[in-house]
Specification:
By secondary structure, the protein is mainly α. The protein is built from 12 helices and no strands.
Length: 295
């Protein structure tokens, strides 16, 4: 039994690392494609979502006969998925890789925490402290200065993060993550068509830009999300939240290595405040619930 548990933990660690690397790679791929002007953001979004649809339904086809629950996703989740992907792409015209990932990740986590509060969850003192620290980090991040993010990029990435938070919350009650994810991707097609038409005159792309968008959609999005769902079976909710703190760090590392981006003191301090505050909220919630159970 202990060998089985050890094997499961190794498998969970491996799957988690691959999934988080895929999430970070999304930021690197998108930023690289746009910063090097290999493709425009609208075309990147269109190709990313369409290639994701193809891969997801290929996976479903391979598993045909193993899907016992018929799910069709939802139009609301599809709209949130589209807004996340579109705003993500347009934001990365203005933001460095690590900056974008930090804003995205921070806004996702804070949005989900606030959604829990709105639904009636009462924050413990430790959680309130963590939330205040995280918000302070955001305020410090956007202070006027040479290294502060552009307002346009900031707003777009905040919308992307909030959209992803709503998409994630919508999926909490999913009985078949793969099918719901696949149909949510599929239902983005009307929005994708509108985006393509609106920015048709501005479209430009190269072979490399298309390849980067396909990799983002087919591998780091579709396959990455599927691997993440597999990893979640071996993680508690607290562990799943904590390990995602690694995504901005991995994305920042990728930006430095592949795009020669520089790290500012303001960004480092803001990162510590935002991620540290969120970590305090997560751990505070975990230990507060655990203490109530044992009391």
């Amino acid at each position: 039994m202990s060998q089985q548990i050890r094997a499961l933990s190794y498998q969970t660690f491996f799957l988690t690392f691959i999934a988080l690397s895929a999430f970070a790679a999304n930021s690197v791929l998108c930023r690289y494609a746009l910063a090097m002007d290999k493709i425009d953001p609208a075309s990147f979004t269109v190709i990313r979502l369409v290639s994701g649809i193809i891969v997801l339904f290929t996976i479903i086809g391979i598993q045909k006969g193993k899907q016992s629950i018929e799910q069709k996703g939802s139009w609301f989740a599809s709209l949130m998925l589209f807004l996340y992907a579109a705003c993500f792409s347009f934001a990365y015209i203005k933001l460095d890789t690590g900056m974008g990932a930090l804003i995205l990740f921070g806004s996702v986590q804070i949005s989900m925490i606030l959604a829990a509060v709105k639904s009636g969850y009462r924050l413990h003192m430790t959680e309130w402290l963590g939330l205040i620290i995280a918000f302070t980090g955001f305020l410090y991040l956007v202070l006027p200065g040479a290294s502060s993010p552009s307002i346009d990029g900031l707003i777009l990435m905040l919308v992307s993060g909030v959209s992803w938070a709503f998409y994630s919350l919508k999926g909490l009650n999913s009985q078949n993550a793969l099918l719901d994810t696949s149909y949510n991707f599929l239902k983005t097609l009307p929005f994708v068509a509108i985006l393509a038409l609106l920015f048709y005159s501005q479209a430009h792309y190269s072979y490399q830009g298309v390849l980067l968008a396909v990799c983002s959609g087919a591998i780091t999005s579709a396959v990455g999300y599927t691997i993440w769902y597999m990893a979640l079976t071996g993680l508690t909710s607290a562990q799943a939240a904590v390990v995602q703190l690694a995504v901005p760090a991995l994305a920042t590392f990728g930006g430095v290595v592949f795009l020669s981006e520089k790290l500012s003191i303001q960004f480092i301090i803001a990162s510590l405040l935002i991620l540290g505050g969120i970590l305090l909220v997560i751990l505070g919630r975990y230990y507060f619930i655990a203490s109530k159970i044992h009391s």
